[in-house]
């Protein structure tokens, strides 16, 4: 009888786990997908992807990295060539609304104001905002380099930066009819630099937290929530996570200083580290964000279920779910997803396979 009971327990446990694997999307508050906004010419294909792939997989949140891929009226000097029109954004809004998908735009704030050897539009047009104007963009970018240049940052204490930034944020949020905005704020290597006339000598954690508060308060005044990536709030040295997925310049102490109503997007791509527990214990809501390793993503998904199952009633609401991230442009991802692009060397660890693993059809 005891053997039969043990067998029944084993079978039931297997069924329970199989069901959890089969329907990972249906029991998480946030079932997200994050990708660069399509260019204007690629919009029809992307709209079909929303209809035929995101909706059937029960994705309920779409974060689009817009940056300057929009025909801003407030600052036309910051537009990318071939960027989305307001009418095209409304097509995205209508399609997402039809499938109850929350649409959240992103503009990279604070960090990521350059990439490799190219300065992004904000600092290109407003060079006075640069936190490190003495660091010149190289003709050929290499890492590591003598300047420690990964991406440029704007100076959070520059008296003119927020007027421009918030005009962009308000316009894009109005166009997307969004209740939240993603400010990026990841991989900030330049902050509180000694040569900056405004930031020199200031605490880097306080500077980072101050910028989070400034953005959050502006959004809250218009009934919108703030989302950010979580890496700058983790201690890269103590955890061994390093300078990419965590901070090595002491911004991690900002985890105790930022507002508690900010959504933390906790990304880990090489290892399924269990840092959502850390954020939740700080009183912050958190979602786990994989990229290209399906097996890691499955472990992260299982962890998120375990957190929600085992947490106290106070902690459980802070474990908000999963968001697949894609770090190519939308057109390249669609080619990868549908197998119409160039064959990849690694056919297992891809963002498309990771997406399928987290959100099976």
UniProtKB/TrEMBL annotation:
Enzyme's top EC category: hydrolase
Signal peptide: 1-18
Record's keyword annotation contains Hydrolase: yes
Glycoside hydrolase family 20 catalytic domain ranges (all copies): 79-292
A Pfam family of this chain: Glyco_hydro_20
The reaction(s) this protein catalyses: Hydrolysis of terminal non-reducing N-acetyl-D-hexosamine residues in N-acetyl-beta-D-hexosaminides
Family according to the record: Belongs to the glycosyl hydrolase 20 family.
Protein name per the record: beta-N-acetylhexosaminidase
């Amino acid at each position: 009888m005891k053997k039969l009971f043990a067998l029944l327990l084993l079978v039931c446990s297997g069924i329970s786990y199989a069901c959890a694997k089969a329907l990972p999307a249906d029991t998480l508050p946030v079932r997200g997908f994050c990708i660069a906004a399509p260019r204007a010419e690629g919009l029809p294909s992307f709209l079909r992807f929303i209809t035929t792939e995101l909706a059937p997989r029960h994705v309920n949140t779409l974060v689009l990295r817009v940056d300057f891929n929009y025909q801003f009226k407030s600052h036309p000097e910051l537009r990318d060539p071939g960027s989305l029109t307001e009418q095209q954004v409304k097509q995205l809004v209508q399609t997402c609304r039809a499938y109850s998908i929350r649409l959240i735009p992103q503009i990279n704030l604070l960090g990521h104001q350059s990439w490799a050897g190219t300065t992004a539009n904000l600092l290109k047009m407003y060079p006075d905002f640069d936190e490190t104007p003495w660091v010149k963009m190289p003709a050929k970018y290499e890492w590591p380099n003598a300047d420690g240049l990964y991406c440029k940052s704007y100076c959070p204490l520059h008296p003119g930066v927020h007027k421009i930034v918030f005009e962009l944020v308000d316009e894009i949020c109005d166009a997307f009819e969004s209740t939240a905005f993603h400010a990026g704020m990841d991989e900030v290597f330049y902050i509180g630099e000694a040569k900056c006339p405004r930031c020199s000598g200031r605490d880097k954690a306080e500077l980072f937290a101050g910028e989070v508060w400034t953005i959050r308060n502006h959004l809250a005044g218009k009934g919108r929530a703030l989302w950010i990536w979580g890496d700058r709030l983790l201690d890269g040295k103590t955890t061994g996570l390093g300078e990419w997925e965590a901070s090595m310049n002491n911004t991690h102490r900002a985890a105790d200083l930022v507002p508690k109503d900010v959504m933390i997007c906790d990304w880990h791509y090489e290892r399924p580290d269990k840092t959502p527990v850390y954020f939740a214990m700080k009183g912050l809501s958190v979602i786990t964000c994989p990229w290209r390793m399906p097996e890691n993503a499955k472990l992260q998904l299982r962890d998120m279920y375990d957190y929600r199952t085992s947490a106290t009633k106070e902690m459980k609401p802070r474990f908000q779910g999963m968001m697949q991230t894609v770090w190519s442009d939308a057109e390249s991802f669609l080619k990868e997803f549908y197998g119409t692009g160039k064959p990849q060397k690694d056919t297992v660890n891809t963002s498309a396979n990771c997406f399928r693993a987290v959100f099976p059809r």
